[in-house]
Amino acid sequence: MVGTEHVDMLPVGAKEIWSAKVNGEDVEVLTTSNATLLDVLRDKVGTLGVKRGCDLGTCGCCTVMVDGQPQLSCLTFAGQVSQCEIITVEGLADGAHLAPIQNCFAKYGGSQCGFCTPGFLISAQSLLNTNTSPTDEEVKTAIEGNLCRCTGYQQIVESIQAAAAIHRGEVEAEAPASSPHPDPHPSGPEEPQMPPGHAR
Amino acid sequence: MSGGYKQQPGGGGNITRKDGKRVAGKQSFPPPGSGGSRPQMAERDLQFIPETVGGREKQPAGAHVHDRIRTGTTVGKSMKLVDSNAKVTGQAWYGDDVRLPNECVAKILRSPHHYAKVISIDTSKVEALPGVLAVATGQDSTTSFGVLPVTKDEHAMAVDKVRHVGDLVACVAAVDEATALHALSLFEVEYEELEPVFDPKKGLEDADEPIHWRGKYHLAKTNVQKRVFQEFGDRSLIDKPSASNHNKWTMKGVHHGFTEPHAVVAHWDPNGRLQLYTPSQVPHYTHRALSTVLAVPMHQINVIRTFVGGGFGGKSDPFPHEMCAALLSRKCGRPVRITFDREEVYMINRGRHPSHIEVKMSADKEARITGFDIDALIDGGGFASFGHVTSYYNGVLATAPYELGSFHYTGARVWTNKPASGAMRGHGAVNTRCAVEVGLDQMAEDLSIDPIDLRLANLLPPHSRTISGFRITSNGMREALERVREGSDWDNKFRQLPLGKGIGIGCGFFISGSGLPIHWDPNKFPHATVHIQVDMDGGVTVHSGAADIGQGSTTAIAQVVAEVLALPIEMIHVRSHESDTSPVDLGSYSSRVTFMNANAAIRAAIEIRDKLLNAAWEMIGYHPDLLVLNDRRIYYKHDPSIGVSYLKALHKAQEDKGALISSGAYRSPPMGGIHKGAAAGLAPAYSFSAYVAETDVDIETGKIKCTNVWAAHDCGRALNPLAVKGQIIGSCHMGLGQVISEEMVYGRTGHLQNANLLEYKIPSVHEMPNVVPIIVESCDPEGPFGAKEAGEGPLLPILPAVVNSVYDAIGIRINDLPLTPDTVYFAIEKKMKAQSVDDPLELESPRLIHSAMQQVVVERAAQHKVRDVARQRSDDTSAYVNGVLFGFDPNIPLEDQVEGWRSATEPLPGQLAELGFAGKAWLKKEQRELEGDN
User: Fold this and answer.
1) CA A22, CA B72: separation in Å to the nearest integer?
2) CA–CA separation, B581 vs B604, rounded Å?
3) Which of A102, A42, A115 is nearest to A73 (CA)?
4) Is B762's CB within 8 Å of A115's CB?
5) Global ipTM
6) B440-516+674-898 architecture in CATH?
7) Which of B34, B92, B756 sits opposite A187 (nearest CB)?
8) Burial annotation B549-565 (CB, 10 A radius, 16+ → b, else e)
9) What pLDDT shows up at residue B11?
C-alpha cells in the first residue's frame, strides 16, 4: 500500500451464502459476493493448507482442484465455483492413509520448506488422475504454473514420477504413518534371540 | 509376545476386514515394554559404521573423532525430513496460518517518497473510523534496532525521516482487512521531500543530508556506511605478469523470492507477556530487538517461530513490522496479525546487494596466481542490515581456495534511497566469486592452458592457512574438480563444441558457520545449545533453538541424536519453535546450523548415552567400553546375548532421578589473525565446490538455456544425502536465476518496477537444467560426524560456470548480470560489427591449443595431489600457510614473512590515487578526524 492516493473502503459485496463440496463435505458459509475462493477457503472454511503466496496468480501456492481441474483460488471468485467439488491439500489423504503423491513428496525430497507443496500436490494429483504414465515433459507442463524456490524442481519431478508408479500399481504404497503398530517401540527387540556376529 | 492390551473389550487377535483394512478400536497392541513390532533387534548396519571401528564404511579421508559413537542408525542414509508429513498434508503452520481467537488485522502505511522528513502525522480521522482498534506511529517507539549491534539504524516506524519508497510510516489495527485498508487512506502525513540518492557511486560523494548520521564516525558527509581496505602478500609479484586481466562487473540486485510472504501475529497474553509468532530464521535476534524496542525484559517475551516458508537470508533480520504488530497488540489488547502482500515483501527486501565489482588478477611464468585485486562497491539501500559483514565478505571470501601471491581488497557499502539490501544465500561471496572465476577462465585462455588444470595447480591444501589468515581444515576442492571433470566429459568437450554450445567451469568457497557470533556477550557464551530429555516412555525430546527454514535442520538434529543413541528416528522429537522452551540459538544464517547445532546435539546425546551405558554396566557387569549400543538394546561386545534392553537400562538410569536430562553446547575454537576485520569470514570449517555447466546459446535471439550441470560440493559428510542433493539442486536453481533472469529493476525515477513474481523472473521448471549432484566427503575433523555446510556454498559456482560456458559457446564475455536475451543479443551484435560479419552463424567459437605451460601446471597439480592426500589423511601434519608456493617457509606466519610481505588494513598515502570505485571512500575523512583538523 504505497502512495498517497485515497483508497475508498473496498466495495463490500452483498452478503451471501456460499455452498460447495469441499474435500467431500458439504460446506455452507456466509461470505460476500466479491470474495475470492482463496479468502473463503482460508478464512471461512478453515482449510489453511491452501497458501497465499502472491495473490496475483503467479506462484501457484493457492492451487486447488475444482471438479478435478487445478485452478488458482486467488484468481477465482468463490461465486464462480459454488456448488462445485473442491479438493484442497487436506482432501488428498484418505484418513491416516496419505495419498501416494504425499508420501512420495516426503520421501523423495519434493518438499523442503513446504510452502509451495500444497499447490504442487494438487497440480500433480490432477495430472495423475488422468495420466498415470506421464513423461517428464508432461510432468513439467503440469507443474509449470507452480513456483518452488527451494528444491530446483528436480526432486519434485522425481516425486511425481514415483507416485505415478504407485498409481500404475508397479510399486506398493506405504503403510499409514499412524498405524497402531509403529515400529519404533521403545522396548525394542525380544531378548533371547540375538543374532550372532556383530562388530563391536 | 503376549496377546497384548486391548483397546476396548470384545475384540482380540488380528482382526481385519475382508478388504484387509484394520478395524478401529479392535486392535491389540503390546503393553509398554513388552516388545515392538520388530521381533528381533535389527543388525548393526555395518555399511554405515566406519572402518576404524570395525565397520565397512570406507574412510578415504581418515578417521574421525566421532567414529566411536557411530551406530549405523541414520548418518549417511537418505531420509525424509521429520516434518515432511506435516508439510504434505497442509498441516504445517506458517506465519499467516496462526489464527488466534478474537484476532484483528493490521495494515502498514508506507512512504510514497524516496527520501523525506516526516513533519507531522495526523491520526485523528483514522481513530474516528468505526472498526479501528489501535493506531501507532514512529513516536510510539523511538528506540532503534538492527540485526548487528554496531549498526542499529532501524525503527519500528519512521521517527524523523522516511528513507525509501515503502518505508514504514504508521500502522493501524482494525476488526477486518477492509476496514484497515480504508483506515490507511485517512492518515494525514506531512512530508518535506529531500534529495534522494539512487546510484551507489553518488553515495560516495558528500550529500546535504546523508541518509543516516553516524556522528564522529561518519565519513565526511557521504552516504558510505562501511569501507574496507585489506592488503596481504607481496605486491611486487604482480609487476611482470605472464597473464593478467581486468574486468568491471555490474551485478543487479536479487531477491530471495521465498514463496511465503512475511507475516506476524503478536499477542499480549493476560499475564502481560508478549507471544509473537513469526516465520523467522533467527528468532533470537528478533527476541533481543523486541525487548529493546518495547522496553520489556526478554523473559517476558516468547518468540514462537512458525514454519518458515523459505528464508535464504531474507527472514533473518528483526523486522519493523514485527515491532508494529507488538505495539498495536499492546494498545488494543487483542491478537494482531500482519501479513504482507508480495509488493511489501520487495519493500522490505534484504536481498543481494546490487554491486559494481572490479577484479584485476595476474599470473606469473609458472602460472601461479600472483595477485587478486578486488574492488567492490555495493548498494546497501536505506538501512545497514547485515551490510557491515557483507562489505568484508565481498573481498575476504575470495582468498581461497587458491594460493595467492598477493591480495588487495577495497570495499564500500553505501546507503541509497532504496529498500535495504542484506544477507542472501551465499552472503557477500556470490558476486565477487563470479568475477574471480571468470577472470581465472580468461587467464587460462591467455596462457593457453586448461582452466581446470590452472585451478588444480594453484589450490591450497587441506589443513592450511589462507593469505588473510583463515584456518582451512578439511578441503575437498581437488576431488570436486576432478569429479566434475570426469562426470561432464570435460576433456572431450571444452573448446571443442560447435558454435552456440558451450561448457564452463566455476568453483566456490564458503564459510560453514560464522566463527564469531553476532552478539558475543558474554564472550564465552556458546553458539548453540541443545537440551535432551528422556522420560519413562523412552521417547527422546530434544530442545533446540535452531530454526528449520526448510533446509532440514530439525531432521539433522534428530538424526545425530538417533545415531548416538541407536534409536529409530521416529523416537526423537525435536522441539524448536518457542523461545520459552528452546535454549538460545543464534539462528539459521551463515550456514552454521548443521555444524554447530549438530555438534551441540552430539554432546548432549553422548551424555545420555553415558548414563544409559553406566546403568547397563550396573545391570550386566560389563564396563561401558565393552558395551555396544544398538537398536534399543545394549549388549556385551563379545557376546550379544548378554545384554539389556534400552528401556530397562533407561529405567535403571532413572531410578530416584526421573527423566534423564542433558545439555550440550558448541562454541567455535579461537582462531584468526589480529588485523582489523580479521574476524570477518572466520569459520570453524569451509565448504568447497566445483560445477561444470553446459549451455546452449541461441545465437540469433541471445536466449541462453543451461542444459546440464555437474555439481560437486564438499559438504564434509552428507548426514542426509537426500537433503544435501536437494540443497545442491536448489542452489543451482537460485544461482541460475541470478545469471539468466532475476533482477530488481529500478527505473529512472528510482522506483522498483517489478515488485511481483510475474516480472521478477524466478526460473520455472522449464528453465532448470538437468543437475547431477555429486557429494564430496572430505570428513571435517571438527564437524559433526565430519559434516560441513551444504546450504549456501553450492550456489556460488553456478554463476561463473554458466558465464564461462556462454563464452565457450559464442566467444563473448559479458560482465553484466543477468544475461538476459537482450544483453546477450546486443553483445552478439557488437561482436558481429567488430568482426564485420553479417550472419551471426558465421561467428567463431573459441578454440584451445595447449601451450608449453600446460605441461607445467599438469605436473604441479600431480605433485600437489600427493601432498593434499597426505595432509588430508594426517600423514603430513606440518604447518602450511599461503605463500609456500612462492617459496616461503610454511612455519612462519604470514605477517612475519620476509620483507615485502605486507598485511595492511588501511591504504598507504601513495596508494590513494590508484584505488577503484569503492576505494575512493578512502579519500574521505571521518568526522572525528575532520574535527581534529579544525
Assistant:
1) 45
2) 16
3) A42
4) no
5) 0.93
6) 2-Layer Sandwich (3.30)
7) B34
8) bbbbbbbbbbbbbbbbb
9) 38
Q: How far is CA B210 from CA B4, B194, B224, B594, B658, in A?
A: 76, 10, 9, 41, 61
Distance CA B934, CA B929 (A): 9
Question: pLDDT grade, residue B676 (50/70/90)?
Answer: confident
Distance CA(A142)–CA(A53), nearest Å, equals 19
- Rg, C-alpha atoms of chain B: 29
pLDDT tens per residue across span B383-397 = 999 999 999 999 999
Query: pLDDT tens across B296-350, in order?
Result: 999 999 999 999 999 999 999 999 999 999 999 999 999 999 999 999 999 999 9
Please answer whether residues B107 and B183 qualify as being in contact, where contact means their C-beta atoms are separated by less than 8 angstroms: yes
Are A149 and B1 within 8 A, CB to CB? no
Largest CA distance in chain A: 80
Q: Helix crossing, B320-332 with B283-294: angle to 10°?
A: 50
Distance from CA of B166 to the nearest CA of A (A): 6
Partner-chain contact B259 A108, CB within 8 Å: no
Task: Give span(s): CATH 1.10.150.120, chain A.
Answer: 100-167
Chain mean position to CA A72: 12
Using DSSP, state whether B677 is helix, strand or coil: coil
Angle at A168 between CA A166 and CA A171, to 5 degrees: 35
Query: Looking at this protein, which amino acid is placed at residue B682?
Result: L
Query: Helices B798-810 & B721-740, crossing angle to 10 degrees?
Result: 50
Of B311, B550, B645, nearest to A187 by CB-CB distance is B645
Is the pLDDT at A190 greater than 90? The verdict is no
Q: Tell me: pLDDT of B33 over 50.
A: no
SS (H, E, C) A79-99: HHHCCCEEECHHHCCECCECC
Average pLDDT, chain A: 87
- Give the closest residue to B452 by CA, choosing from B399, B487, B494: B494
Section B5-26 average pLDDT: 47
A93 φ/ψ angles, rounded to the nearest 5 degrees: -80, 150
Helices (H), B169-214: 177-184, 200-203
- Specify whether the CB–CB gap between B718 and B76 falls below 8 A: yes
Cell numbers at B740, concatenated:
539468466
pLDDT number for residue A67: 96
Residue ranges covered by each domain of chain B: 1-37, 440-516+674-898
Question: Which set of grid coordinates corresponds to residue A130?
Answer: 488422468
Task: Supply the CATH classification number for the domain A100-167.
Answer: 1.10.150.120
Residue B522: is the preceding peptide bond cis (ω within 30°)? Answer: yes
CATH top class, domain A15-91 = alpha beta
- Residue B620, classified by CB atoms within 10 Å of its CB into exposed (0-12), middle (13-18) or buried (19+), is middle
Please state, rounded to an integer, the average pLDDT across all residues of chain B.
91
Q: Which three cell numbers stand for residue B352?
A: 543481494
DSSP sequence for A22-86: ETTEEEEEEEETT-BHHHIIIIII--TTS--S-SSSSS-TTEEEETTEEEEGGGSBGGGGTTSEE
State the Cα–Cα distance between residues B129 and A9, nearest whole angstrom. 11
pLDDT tens column, B465-481: 999 989 999 999 999 99
Least confident of B210-219, B457-466, B638-647: B638-647
Q: E strand or H helix at B503, and its extent?
A: strand B501-511
**Residues B110, A2: C-beta atoms closer than 8 Å:** yes
Question: Which of chain B's residues have a Cβ under 8 Å away from the Cβ of A49?
Answer: 89-91
| Contact: A4, B112; criterion CB under 8 Å | yes
> Cell numbers 599438469 label which residue?
B858
- How close B542 comes to chain A (CA, Å)? 16
Chain B residues with CB-CB distance to A178 below 8 A: none
State pTM to two decimals.
0.93
